[in-house]
Specification:
- With 192 residues, this protein is α+β, with helices and mostly antiparallel strands.
- It is built from 1 helix and 11 strands; from the N terminus they run αβββββββββββ.
- The protein has a 5-stranded antiparallel sheet, with no helix packed on it.
- The longest helix is centred in the first third of the chain and has 31 residues.
């Protein structure tokens, strides 16, 4: 009885061994076959970006301005002087001058320099965003022509300012080749 069992075990063991060999052969055969492409597949890409704050000055005020009809005792308002701006965020324009007192000083056109110990107008140059004021004195300290202006989008926005001189009888005419002069400096930027 025990001998029969042993034979059966031996036969079963051989069958198991044969079955394992057949499975291994089938796996090897399947792996050697070329891969078949799927009919469709998909994937995705996430695209992200941050837009930087930007400002563009489409047009600046003229680089040289000559104020005419400057007569003592008469207020002279000149302008408007125009900026054309495009911005995608809050923006502003600052103004200052190269002269601390804001007074136009005697300039020699021939030597292209200010006259040492030359004359200066009695009153400072003033600016305003309207032709009627209120007026602010120009100096080396920064003044805000425009501040906290909203984004313009694609369509540019035009903004203006005016200048005022108030000559007195203490202001003398200058000889030929000389004039009273001051330089205005503008800063256009985002966030102020």
């Amino acid at each position: 009885a025990s001998g029969g069992r042993g034979r059966r075990r031996g036969v079963g063991w051989r069958r198991g061994r044969r079955t394992g060999a057949i499975v291994a052969a089938l796996v090897g055969l399947l792996m050697s076959l070329p891969a078949r492409a799927a009919t469709d597949a998909s994937s995705s890409t996430i695209v992200s970006a941050n837009v930087e704050p930007a400002i563009e000055v489409v047009e600046w005020p003229a680089t040289t301005v000559t104020v005419t009809s400057v007569v003592p005792g008469t207020e002279v308002v000149s302008g408007p002087y125009t900026f054309v701006i495009r911005s995608n965020t809050t923006w502003g324009i600052q103004i200052r001058s190269d002269e601390n007192t804001g007074k136009l000083r005697e300039f020699d056109i021939g030597t292209a320099g200010f006259v040492t110990n030359g004359r200066a107008l009695t009153r400072s140059l003033e600016w305003s965003t309207t032709g009627s004021g209120p007026w602010a004195t120009v100096s080396t300290a920064v003044g805000n022509l425009y501040s906290g202006e909203p984004p313009t989008g694609e369509t540019p926005r035009s903004v203006k300012f005016y200048l005022r001189l108030r000559p007195t009888f203490n202001d003398m005419p200058l000889p030929a080749g000389r004039e009273y002069r001051i330089t205005l400096i503008y800063t256009v930027g985002v966030g102020y």
